[in-house]
Amino acid sequence: DAKTTQPPSMDCAEGRAANLPCNHSTISGNEYVYWYRQIHSQGPQYIIHGLKNNETNEMASLIITEDRKSSTLILPHATLRDTAVYYCIVRVDTSGATNKLIFGTGTLLAVQP
Amino acid sequence: GAGVSQSPSNKVTEKGKDVELRCDPISGHTALYWYRQSLGQGLEFLIYFQGNSAPDKSGLPSDRFSAERTGGSVSTLTIQRTQQEDSAVYLCASSLRMNTEAFFGQGTRLTVV
Predict the structure, then answer these.
(1) Interface test mutation site (partner B, options A36, A55, A95, max chain B beta carbons within 10 A)
(2) What is the 3-state secondary structure (H, E, C) of chain A?
(3) What is the pLDDT of residue B107?
(4) Taking CB atoms and an 8 Å cutoff, what residues of chain A touch B104?
């Protein structure tokens, strides 16, 4: 079970910020939120992850609510190359079988020119 | 190599034949995953190797599927007596440790005719 809920699709205008939501209401205290994306015909690509605090890197920002039951991935200036399926995943950060990455159905982000 | 390498990139086989798919992870990565992705579908977890621990085989769909990881490096996914429903892209990923980002290969496209 993916343990996350995401909208199946979203549109975004090129140059605008893309805000992708994810619900993970059953998240445990030791579970991180990870985001990956998969551009058509390619393998998935890691974007960012976080536990409690908001995180930012060269690709995106991750905003996690205080109760940790939901999060938002923000692409600040979307380009056509950001068109992809975006996956939100929760996983524990310890060794063992429960650490495996389980992908849900994701959100298809279509960046429009 | 710089990334995860999978071979062959494409494989066409006749129904009932056995196939072997190879994954060369990034050097030094202790965790290795296999997934499959049918056309237009999400990623289905198959198996997960972590260091010297027993692999998590919970995602293998039937006993026709097996995987090995020799010497903690190269992995081979074997499908015996292939069926048409086995047609999919088989993706391999590796990560430095169990709790770090996973890097994916480009996949092997398997077609069973």
Answers:
(1) A95
(2) CCCCECCCEEEEECCCCEEEEEECCCCCCCEEEEEEEECCCCCCEEEEEECCCCEECCCCEEEECCCCCEEEEEECCCCHHHCEEEEEEEEECCCCHHHCCCCCCCEEEEEEC
(3) 96
(4) 43-45
